[in-house]
Amino acid sequence: MITHKDSIHILIADDDEDDRAFFSDAMMELKMNNKLTLFNDGKDLMEYLANPDIVMPHILFLDLNMPYKSGFECLKEIRADSRFKEVSIAIYSTSSSEKDIEETFIEGANIYIKKPNDFTKLKKVIKEVLNINWQFHSSGLNKETFFFSI
Amino acid sequence: MRLYIKYDGIVACRVILQEQLERLDISYKLLELGEIEISNSVTKENLAQLQEALNKYAIFVVSNEKSQLIQKIKDAIVEMVYEKDKLPSVTISQYLSDKLNFSYGYITNIFSEYTYTSIENFIIIQKIERAKKLIIEDELTLTEVSYKLNYSSVAYLSSQFKKVTGLTPSAFKRIVDKRRNLSN
Amino acid sequence: MNFRSLYRNSQIFKIALGIAILVVGYIASVFYKQMQSLESSVNVITNATETQLELERVLSIISIYETNLRSYVITKDKSYLEHRFLRKGEIEMNFIRIKKLVANNPARSKDVDQLKRMIDYRFALFKETLLLAESKNPGKEQLIAKLKESSDFTESMKTFVYKTINAEGDKIKIHNDNHQFELQDSIISAFLLVILSLLILLLSFNKMNVDIKELKKANDDLQFLNHSFNNAEKIAGFGHWKIDLETKLYTFSDNFLRLLGVDPNKFEPTIENFSKHIHPDDVDFVIKSHKESLETLEPTSMMFRYILPDGDIRYIRSVGSFTRNSKGDMIKTGVNYDVSDQYKKTLELEENNKELKSINEELESFNNIVSHDLQEPLHKIQMFISRIEAKEIDLISDQGKVYFSKIKLSANKMQTLLIDLVNYSRTIKGDKVFKETNLNEIITQILDDLAINIEDKKAVISAAILPTIKVIPFQMEQLFINLISNSLKYSKDDVNPIISIFEEEIFENEIYESKIISNEEYCKIVIVDNGIGFKQEYSSKIFNLFYRLEKDSKYSGTGLGLAICKRIVENHDGFIQVSSVPGEGAEFAIFIPRNI
Question: How far does the signal peptide extend, from start to end residue (chain A) (predicted)?
C-alpha cells in the first residue's frame, strides 16, 4: 500500500521562470515528501515524457499559455497515450475563463488551478490539490470523473 | 467504440480474492470487507505468491495494524455511503465507533495522521463520488440524489459538490457527457 | 348563377343562339311542308272542279244530242243531225281531258272508263234509234220503245255522272276544309318564325353591344394599365424586354431603353444593338448566358454593368423567364433594373462590416490582453508583494512599509478593475446560451461564494422562493453577485446590512418608460437593502459605465458593477430600475421576460 510517506512525483511545465520559482518555493515550504521536476515549456515536457524509462509521475502541472507547445496541446497528446492514463493532469493558468476550464476538463484534465495572486494562497492551493489527488489515488476513486477546479 | 459499465467494486474485489485464494489452495474465510481469515498452515512462499497475485489488481496485503484500521475506517465509510440505500440517520461518529469498536476520538486522530485528511472530509468526498455516479447514471433527479445521500436540500448538495469539485453538478454532467461524445 | 351572368357568359349565349337557329330551321321546314301540302290541296280542288265541269259538259253534249235526235224523229228535219259527229268528237276530246284530270285517282279512272263505255253504248242506242227513224217503215212502237230505252239509259247515265260529280264535290269540300286548317297553321308558323327571328336578332344585337362595350372598357383598362406600367417602370427604374423564340424578334420597353440612355424612338430592337451598351468585361458572359438559356429554357438572373453614352457605369440586375404567349409560342420575358445605388450601398455596408469585424477582433484581442496578458504581470506583482510581506517586510523602514501598503492597495484595485472589465466584456460577447434556471439555486451559489464577505459585514441575506426562468445562467449569477456585493459595499457602518431578495407581482400595468408591462410577460425580482442609499436623481446615472457616486476611498469600486448589471438585464430583453432615499437604503428591481 502506498502511504503518504512515499514520495509524490510531480512534474510542472511553465514557461514563466518566476512562476516556476513560486511553485517550487511553495512545495518546499509545504515540506511534503515529493520529487518535483520543472520544464521550461511544453516541448521539453513532451520530450521528457517520450522516454520510456522514466518514473511515472503522480501528477502533472501544465501552464496553458506556453510557446512551442501549449498546455492544451500537451494535454491532448498525453491523454492520447495510454501509458499516462493513471497520471493526474492539473492545469495551472492565469486564465479563469469558464471556456478554458470546461474545454480542458473535456480533453481529460483532472484539476484546474487559477494561479493565485498570493503566495500563501498558492501554498494552500497546492496542498489542497495534492491532498485531493492523493485521495483519488489511495481510495480507488473513479479517475474518469475526477474534476477539481480551484 | 467505448462501453460504459456499472460495477460494484466490492463484489468484484470479493470475486478476485476468492479466485486467487482458491487457485493457491488456501483455505480461507472472507470476513468483513478488507479482512480475510486464513489458516495458519499457509507457508511463507504461498503468502508471497498470494501478495504478488493480488498486487496485479491493486489489492495489497496490509500488515501494519494502524494501516489496517485506517483501511477498516475507509471501508466502513464506503460501505456506509454505497451499501445502505440511504445513509444512516445516526451520527457518523456513533456509526463508526459502533462498527469498529474504538472511540471516535482515536479513530479520527489515527485517520488524519495517516491520510492527510479528516474523516468528515473523506465522507464528503465519498458522498460526492456517489453523487457523481448517480448524476452520470442519469436515472435520478438532483432532488432525488440529495435525498438519497441524506442532504437537507439540493442547494446544500450543489454547494458541497462545488466545494469538492469546483464545478456545479450540471457543469459536471455537461463535461462528462462531452467527454464521452469526444471519445466516441 | 343568375340570368345576368348567364347572359354575360358568351359560351352559353352561343349555345342558345345555336338552339334558336335550329328551332327556326325546324319551323321553316314545317312551314315549307305546309306550303307544299297547301299547294297540292289547291291542285286537287282545281282538278276536281275541272273534272266536274268536263263531266257536266259531256252530259250536256249527250242531252243536246238526244234533244236533236228527238227533234229529228219528230220533224224529220235533217239539220238537227248536222253536228252529230262533231259532237262525238267533242266528247272524245272531253274524255281525253277527264282522263288526264283523274289520272292520279284510280277509282275515278274506273268511273270514267265505265262512263266511256256507257257513252259508247248510248251512242250505239242513238245510232239504232236513228236507223230505226230513217227506215222506210219504222214501227211506231218499236221506235217509241227505243226512245224510251235511250232516255232511261241517259237517265241512269246522268245518275252515274252526278254521283261522280258529287264524289268530286265531297273531295273538294274535304280539301277545302283541310286547306283552311293548313292555311291557319302556316300563318301561326310564319308568325312564330318572324317573332323568333326578331328575338334572336335583338338578343344578338344586344349581346354584341354589351360585348363591344366590355371590349372597349377592357381596352381602356389595358391602355391605362400600360400607361401605369410605363410610369411604374419609370419611377421604379426598371425596364422590361421580351424575345419571341419563334420569330426571334426582340421587344424593349421605353424605359428599358431610357435606362440604356438611348432615345426609345431611335433604337432598333436587336440583341446586337443592346449588347453595345453592356460593359465590355461583362458582355460575353451576359450574351452567352442569355443565348444558353434560350436553348435550355432555364430562367436567368444576372448582374452586369451598362456603360451609358455619357460614360457613366450603372449596375444592372436582369432576370428573365419563359412563358407562352396567346398564340402558344415560347417567349422569354424579363426585367432589367438599375441596382447601382443598392450595389454601392452593399459595397459600403460590406466595407463597414469588415471594419466592424476588425474592430470586434481588436476588441476581442483587447479582451484577451485584459484577461490574460495584463493579468500575468499583475499576478507577478501581487505574488512578489505577498513574498515580501511574508519574508522581507521587517527589513523595510516604516515609511517604506506605508509605500508598500499603497502599492499593495493599488495592485488589488487594479485586479478588481481587470476582473470587472473581463466580466463586462463577457456580457458583450456572443456566447449567450439561455437555459431554464432556478434563481434560488443561483442565489444559494452566490451566497456561498460571498460567504466571507457576508460574514465580515455580519449581513443578513434572505431570499424568498424565486421563479425558474430561461436565462443565461452565468450572467444571472454575475448580476446577483454584483447587486448583492453592491448592497454589501454601500452598507451603513453602524447597522448590520439586511438584504432581501424576492419576486414581486407587477401591479396593474406598471409603466416603465412608457412601455406597458404585465405580470404574464415579465417577472420582477426585487433586491432591497438598508444601506446608505442615494438621491433618486442619480437613479439612471448609476448604471452608466465608469460612473461612480461615492468618491470616498472607503467605497472602492470600478464603476463597472452596475453597468454590467444593466447590460446583463438588457441581454435578457429586460430592464432594471432603482429607487432610493438617502440614508434609508436602495431598492433594485429587475424585470426579465418570462418567455424568451
Answer: none
Q: How far apart are CA C439 and CA C594, in angstroms?
A: 13
- Locate the chain A residue with the closest alpha carbon to B4: A144
Of B78, B116, B172, the CB nearest to A131: B116
Cα B130 to Cα B82, B149, C207, C214, C464: the distances in Å are: 7, 8, 95, 89, 31
Residue C21 banded pLDDT, cuts 50, 70, 90: confident
C146 with C129: CB under 8 angstroms? yes
Q: Which domain holds residue B41?
A: 9-61
Among the partner residues B117, B122, B136, nearest to A145 by beta-carbon distance: B136
Distance of CA C126 to the CA centre of its chain: 106
Number of folded domains in chain B? 2
> Does the structure's ipTM exceed the value 0.90?
no
Taking CB atoms and an 8 Å cutoff, what residues of chain C touch A22?
Answer: 383, 387
Beta-sheet strands, E only, within C192-347: 238-244, 249-252, 300-307, 313-324, 330-338
What DSSP string describes B66-96? Answer: HHHHHHHHHHHHHIIIIISSS--SS-HHHHH
Residue closest to B173 by CA, chosen among B142, B135, B137, B141: B135
Q: Which chains have at least 3 CB atom pairs separated by less than 8 Å from chain B?
A: A, C
Residue whose C-alpha cell reads 506583482 in the numeric block: C381
Task: Indicate whether B147 and B131 sit together in one domain.
Answer: yes
Closest-approach residue (CA) in chain B for C449: B159
Q: Are A106 and B178 inside 8 Å of each other by CB?
A: yes
CB contact at 8 A, C156 and C163 = no
pLDDT at B84: 62
Residues of C with Cβ-Cβ distance to A118 under 8 angstroms: 382-383, 386
Domain shared by B50 and B118, yes or no: no
- pLDDT tens-digit profile of B149-178? 888 888 788 888 888 888 888 888 888 888
